[in-house]
Amino acid sequence: MTALRYVRGALQMEQADLAAVAAEFGTPCYVYSRAVIEAAYNAYDAAFGQRPHRICYAVKANSNLAVLNLLARLGAGFDVVSGGELARVLRAGGDAGRVVFSGVGKCADELRAALAAGIGCFNVESAAELERLNRVAMEMGLKAPLALRVNPDVDARTHPYISTGLRENKFGIPAAEAPALYRHAAALPGVQVRGIACHIGSQLTDLAPLAEAAGRVAALRQALLDEGIGIEHVDLGGGLGIAYENEAVPSHADYVAAISAPFAGSGVSISIEPGRSIVGPAGVLLTRVEYLKPGAERNFAIVDAAMNDLLRPALYDAHHAVLPLRDSGSREPMSWELVGPVCESGDFLARERSLALAEGDLLALRDAGAYGFVMSSNYNSRPRPAEVLVDGAQAHLIRARETQDDLWRGEVMPAG
User: From residue 287, how far is each of 50, 324, 400 by CA, in Å?
Assistant: First the structure.
């Protein structure tokens, strides 16, 4: 689903004119569609039907409180990877009992905070973490619910920076070591085995690796059951990828069928952790053309957004479609490099795009709702952009643009 359309030459999100949004809130600016977020979540929920399941939204994709609150009201659980993300979920009205805590480096304070909040499950990623969790839980007089995150050594065939299920990746416990560690966990007094977790990567558009990983988790579950170790749920990781550049993306129904097939008739609850596919297509980054700089080799369009606002192109060479907010009229298109003001040659947002541009034009970078603002920074002492949520014709400010005073808040110059 997309909420973007041209109406009389003007780009709208739902019924809101994006040029009017830019005029009210300035640029650069992130804008999200409530309708797209709701439709994406509901599509996963409907695909599971009556099968026991939980959709744990991956907070790292977009952690704005308004987005988290919207998903909590839809009934979502949450996947967090830090104490800060857990605090955000709780602040937004999320239920700690519907939260899974993933991540390879949970510190003792984060474990304590999660236990005190009544966390639903820890996805434990190493033998060392298991021992620490057991110790902290015993100190608090509690039993920590856990799943071991098993690394199934399945190639997700995605970008190497977002592949998480191979032996060389830092995530999870090698599948061959998992049975022994489950036996050990079952004997520890401070933890309670609840499930098996697995996550092989992000931006997946091929169901075969997901089905293979699910099959390996199903085999491990059966082996544990044969030993008397009960498994209440399986967590099969991230959701679908999205069509950044006309990729063929499977349906939600096909995705759920592929990961559920190895568990047919078992009655086990299935959890997933989609993030990108829920918020990615819901968002755009609005930016304004500051200067045009044609050249003999390349034509540069210098815009007011930069790699500190949207890191994905510089980090992954990621593609985001670029749409003008107004019809360009009779101007002829040229090939442009869309670059920002940051003092780095890697500061680009799009390459070799055919656009008819003039100074002052407003542009929208599509599919920027995931891993956009959450990866932004203040590099070059640039305030981070505003965030806006569109609901029908209404545009609501959900994060104010940072000011220069925000840049040095918390810094101290010693006297003398």
Answer: 44, 10, 16
